[in-house]
C-alpha cells in the first residue's frame, strides 16, 4: 500500500467525522472552539460513524464498499451529515439539555 493510499484512507475516516461536527455546530448554533478540538472530535465521530456503518450494513457489503474509498466515503459522509443534524435537533430539546446538565453534576 502506497503513502497516497494511507492518506486517502485517513481522509475517508476523518472527513465524515468533520462533516458530523460541522453539521451539528451549524444547525445547533454552537461555536467552534479550536483546531485541535475540531480535529479530535472529527476523528472520534469518524470512528463512531464507521462503527455505526458496520452495525447497519451487512459485513460483506462493508468490506466491499470500503475497498472503493469513494463509495465508502460517500456513504459515511451522508451518514455523518444526518447524524450531526439529528444531534442538533436533540440538543435543542429541553429534556435532553436537562439530562446533559444532570450528567455533568452526577459523574457516573
Question: Could you outline the blueprint of secondary structure elements for this entry?
Answer:
Layout: H1 3-28, H2 35-56, H3 59-67, H4 69-92, H5 94-105
Helix pairs in contact: 1-2, 1-4, 2-4, 3-4
Distance between the termini: 43 Å
- Coarse morphology: globular
Uncertain segments: none
Number of DSSP strands?
A: 0
- Biggest beta sheet attributes: none
Please bin the fraction of helical residues. Answer: over 70%
Rg, Cα atoms, Å:
16 Å
**Would you list the SSEs in sequence order as H and E?**
HHHHH
Strand proportion, as a percent range, falls in under 5%
Number of H- or I-type helical stretches: 5
Average pLDDT for all residues: 78
Which class best fits the helix and strand makeup?
A: mainly alpha
How many domains, in number, for the residues?
1
